[in-house]
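Lab meeting prep.
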Amino acid sequence: MGCIVSCRFHHAADHNGILFLLQSPRYDAPALYAHLQAFLADMMFLHLGYAVLRRAVDAQGIVNAGAGPATGG
């Protein structure tokens, strides 16, 4: 998609965030922005999917996959 793609933590104007830098010889700014929005939507979907799975695992009382059920204490 691009010849320059960068993503990093960035702090500006007293706000923390993620800075995306994109440059492409084939796509204009609106197309790059649309690709970035789709990428972020996919990442949010994966994160939410993980959160649902984590809650289900926590509800089962499982500490981690290899440790077996959690013990009360």
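Slide two material, second protein:
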Amino acid sequence: MTEDLYTIDGVAEKAKVSRSTVCRWIHSGRMRSFKVGGTRRIPESAIAEFFAAGTVGGDAPVEATQDPRALARELGISLAAAKRQIAGVA
């Protein structure tokens, strides 16, 4: 049986996040992928593993760090936004 493969755009659509978020997951090593020719592919099992590992909204780990600088780096957001997120302020 062959496993379904997704493009970055396909994962973004499935997860309801931006393409750049999926790229960030891949480049950080949090989501497995490989290249076929010049196109990156993500196996369906890698998507399932990623979400089974515990994510909130498909981006931040459930055990989100309380260090605002680390959170800002991980999510690619400003330090102020990271501080608001840790405080639970929208």
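Talking points for slide two:
The two ends are 44 Å apart (CA to CA).
The longest strand covers residues 39-43.
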